[in-house]
Structures are given as structure tokens and as C-alpha cells.
Amino acid sequence: MKVLIIQQKMIGDVLTSTVLFEALRAHYPDAQLDYLIHTHTVPVVENNPYIDRIIEFTPQAEKSKKALWILAKTIKKAKYDVVIDVYSKISSNLITALSGAKIKISYHKAYSSFIYTHTIKRAKQTVQDCGLAIVNRLQLLEPLDIYLKTATPKIYMTTSELESSKQFLISNGINFQQALVMISVLGSGTNKTYPFEYMAQVIDTIVSTCKAQILFNYIPKQETEAQAIFNLCQPQTQQHIYMNLFGKSLREFLALTAHCHALIGNEGGAVNMAKALNIRTFTIFSTWIDKDTWNIFEEETVNESVHLKDYKPQLYIGQTEKDMKPNALALYQKFTPDLFAEKLQVFLQKLHTHD
């Protein structure tokens, strides 16, 4: 049997959907399991033992109808028995429709349901600690008689990657006897980025609470923004920040994060990757994102998260994500660090004991 899973776009989505592969492998040990994902997300699934083949959705396929058509024809030639379209947007609708697969599974949408043999309605709430993002993905396996309530995404690093990153940190003055914290200083967009001044106050709290060594998660083109946050930190805090130590590639970031005691900061792919590396997280959610979907594996002092809705629920009465999104920046101004300072300090104190 040949199975294709389609999950385009963001790193967090691609990582989260890998739970489907482990479940499928357990149920169909001899199946060929392939993954269609955006090129820039490939590093997060490298070395995954449950994925047989990665098919790249290139930037060209995203921008060009001709390139997308060629990709769809390539998929058809592969003769998949099952296509699971987790992405469920126009490009993946087309690929699935042309695939020729006998079984085609996706989420229920009025405009595209005719393409699929099975459609699943997303759950809107769950009691599972894995969160709705995983619960809803696992539901996509039910037409194949696979029923799971929870699953954990994992990232697979090589011994050489981990050893190389450890030596890199040591050679640049990192002391492994002290807490090492990765800060997700920037979100994937302005409306998913905690205000710089507030983020600097959070970093000040981290250093004053547990004297942690601080790494920033950013890419070279974001250096100006990262430097701006550094400049807003207290002088004594700045002495704990190692601005020159950052991953120049996604795999390098993963290898550095694997040695950290925690990742703290903006919700997004970095948080999901840290969890998949079994690193503690403290997540600051964007003011418009639905926390219930992405606060996966929430556990006190292990994986904690904060949202403006936790402290000012009246602002969200009768409002949807779509309603809140245009007001994200104004809402951020109300999401002051003092609201969750005590919760962060408790998290850090537990972290400092290295339990």
C-alpha cells in the first residue's frame, strides 16, 4: 500500500502532522509512507524513521500554475492508494483530485468535500492534553480504522549534530552547569510577535530570576529586530545574552535548542520544535490565535502558556479569531508582562532546580 500525506506551509504544521506517520507505520508496517511538504520545512522531518520519501512542494509550485500541474501529474504517476490531505487548501485539493487514489481523506469544507471519499469535521474542544491540533489530525486516520486519542511529534537529531553543537556552545563560553534558555524573540509576523519592549522585560525577568544564559532564536535577516530587543534589555541582562550564538540553518537551531533547559517566547514553530525535542517551554500566544488549538501537551512547569484571554476574558466574549486578528497589535498593548510575571517566575524556579 502507498500512502501520501499532504501538509504544506508552516513548520509547526509539518512537524505536528508527523504523528500520522508513526500511527500508520504501526498499522501498516509494509506500506510506503510519503510526505508532501514545502521545501523550507524539510529539515524538521529529516531522519524521521517512519517517513519513506519526502516530496518537496517548491516555491515554483506555489507561484506557478504550470509547476503545480507538473507536480500533480507526478503524484498521479506514483499511484497512491491513499491520500490524506491535512492542508486542505486549493493547491492540495487539486493534487488530491488528480491523484487517482481510491481513498482520499481531508477535513470537511463545503466547497471541496466532493473531491474526497471521506471528510472529517474538526473537533472544537478536547480533554486530551495533546491539544486540538493533534486530536484533529488523528481523526483523519479513522477512515482507515486507526483510532488514537493522543500522539507526540518527535524530531530526530544525529549524535554528530548534537556533539558538534555542544562543542560550539562550549567554545563560545557557555557553561552547562548554569541554565541555558532559548528565546523565541520574533514571531512569524508582526501580529504574532510580542512587543519588543515587553519581550525585553520578559528577558530581564528570566535573568534576574535564575541568572540564565540567553540565546536568541533569529535568522540573519532578522538581526536588526533581534538587536533592537537586546538594546531594550537592562545592562545587567545584556551581559547574559549571547547574540552571536544562533542557528544559521534550521538543523543548527534544532541542535542548539536540544541543549537548552527551556525555550521561552512567541508561539510558533520554534515552540513546537522545542516540545518535539522534549525541551520545556513557556509560550506567549498572539492575542488573536486560538490557544486551545496549539497549547499542545500543556503541563504545569513543563509546558506552560499565556494568552491575553487568560487575564482579560471579557475582551473575547462573542469574538472569533477572524474578528480579533485586525486588532492584534492594539490587544498586544494590553498584554503587559506583569500579568504573567509570577507564573513565569514559578516556571523558572522549577527550571533552575534541573528537575
Q: Would you kindly provide a brief summary of this structure?
A:
Helices cover 40% and strands 15% of the residues. The chain contains 17 helices and eleven strands.
Which bin fits the share of residues in helices? 25-40%
Separation of termini? Answer: 45 Å
Query: What is the CA-atom radius of gyration, in angstroms?
Result: 21 Å
Return the CATH topology of the largest domain. Rossmann fold
Question: What is the annotated CATH architecture of the largest domain?
Answer: 3-Layer(aba) Sandwich
Number of H- or I-type helical stretches: 17
- Return the CATH class of the largest domain: Alpha Beta
Helix/sheet category:
alpha/beta
Tell me the major beta sheet.
6 strands, parallel
Strand content: 5-15%
- Average pLDDT figure: 95
Strand order of the largest sheet: 3-2-1-4-5-6
Write the element-wise H/E pattern from the N-terminal end onward: EHHEEHHEHEEHHEHEHHHEHEHEHHHH
Number of strands: 11
InterPro entries: Glyco_trans_9 (IPR002201), LPS_LOS_Heptosyltrfase (IPR051199)
Protein name: Glycosyltransferase family 9 protein
Organism: Bizionia sediminis
Keywords: Glycosyltransferase, Transferase
